[in-house]
Amino acid sequence: MDINPRAHLHADIRRSVRELCRDFDSAYWQKLDETAAYPDAFVAALTQAGWLSALIPEAYGGGELSLVEASVVLEEINRSGANSGACHAQMYIMGTLLRHGSDEQKQRYLPAIARGELRLQSFAVTEPTTGTDTTSTRTLAERDGDRYLITGQKVWISRMQHTDLMLLLARTTPAAECKKKTDGLSIFLVEVPQGAATADAAERSGLTIRPIRNLVHHETNEVFFDHFPVPATNLIGAEGQGMRYILDGMNAERILIAAECIGDGYWFIDKARRYATDRRVFNRPIGQNQGVQFPIARAYANVMAADLMRYEAAALFDNQKPCGAAANTAKLLAADASWEAANVCLQTHGGFGFAAEFDVERKFRETKLYQVAPISTNLILSYLAEHVLELPRSF
Question: Where do the domains of the chain lie, and which CATH numbers do they carry?
Answer without folding.
Answer: 7-115 (1.10.540.10), 120-239 (2.40.110.10), 244-388 (1.20.140.10)
